[in-house]
Amino acid sequence: MPYNKDIYNTLYYKEPGPKLDKESPFESMMERFRFAAEILKLDDGLFSYLSNPVKQVTVSVPVEMDDGKLKVFEGYRVVHDNILGPSKGGLRFAPDVNIDEVKALASWMTWKCAVVNVPFGGAKGGIRCNPRDMSIRELERLTRRYTASMLDVFGPEVDIPAPDMGTNEQVMAWIMDTYSMHMRKTSNAVVTGKPIIIGGSLGRKEATGRGVVTVTLAAMNKLGISPINAKVAVQGFGNVGSVSAKLMYEQGSRVIAISDISGAYYNEKGIDIPSAMAYSQNNNFSMEGYTEADKITNEELLELDCDVLIPAAKEDQISRHNANNIKAKIISEGANGPVTANADKILDENGILVIPDILANAGGVTVSYFEWVQDRQGYFWTEERVNRRLNRMMRNAFHLIYGVMEEYNVTLRQAAYIYSIKKVAETLKLRGIYA
Ligand code: NAD
What we know:
Rossmann fold; binds nicotinamide-adenine-dinucleotide; 15 helices; alpha/beta; 435 residues; five-stranded mixed β-sheet; seven-stranded mixed β-sheet
């Protein structure tokens, strides 16, 4: 199908205005969804079906706090779709989480799972609370009561939560235990991101960064850039950023800059990533005071002259304000939504290849899928097997989406949306609407 510039302009690049300064990642995602739907000439009924979640549940979660007082929290679970399989998505504990955010994140999961050919639909959950202000016992009571309220929603064949902002593997263990107690049997496939000892998967912690690097190497290969000595800048040095930096370093690349909330650290000769990781770990997970590199700002890091830029910290880092200053040849989105929809067009015009979040950081959900498969089989794989299969799925997904990009003459991001929407829409048509 030819590339339609008019559609591109009307749907993709809105009139500049004050609203664009505060572009939310969800608006960006919806804009990309609308653009792909238009290219695919999705009919109105299907568009409406795919724009709305199939299920939204809001519950009140009463918790007896340590001081004996009763507090009531609001909890949500949204299933965007379950067309490709059981729905999958994280559970977020945050003071400002709300149903609209959860709805948007649930649809994001649908497209992410479809892009990497994981047989899951998309979902997301949240509890409006501040986990930092709560004791471990309060968090346990909150999690268990929320899970009890969601017994009809969750299930290994129905809807499978995972960790997200403010939750961790301990929270997953409580969900698994509560669900199992009610089912009268151990049911570890009901959540992923669990501790290894109760059915978690080897390789899960490194999976997102590993997936980022797999697709980055595939993209470098397409552009004829050798990883040896390639200049790489990584924003964010947490789970995704540090693993991505380490694996690029192991490929022989020169990681010239890394950063975290304390600032960015630049060394043109390349940073010794294993020692930087050790520094961060011994320094309460902060690079503050690191002397093996010059201190620059996070904004300056984004604009460095490099081959690959991996934004792996947070959303909205590259917008129409700085997109024209980006010098990287490839941007690989480790974080969710680091590039706004308005920046997409500028980067595209400047010939920069952006590997979109729904592809680049889908290694996490891919190994979540492996965890679920292993739990259901009751047979656990070696880390080597997990990594090998992850690499294969990520590489295949990259080449598939790259092919769609060439076929439709669009960006890699648009191709990812086109592929995933087409896949979900075709499956829905085949299954039909049960009346
Ligand atoms: P993390 O908390 O482990 O690390 C975040 C890092 O970013 C930290 O080093 C922090 O200091 C840094 N940071 C925070 N604010 C910053 C700022 N303003 N400027 C520069 N650095 C800043 O988180 P993570 O798990 O690595 O996740 C990072 C991103 O990747 C998030 O967008 C997340 O949604 C996305 N993601 C994570 C996974 C996963 O499996 N962990 C999967 C998919 C997507």
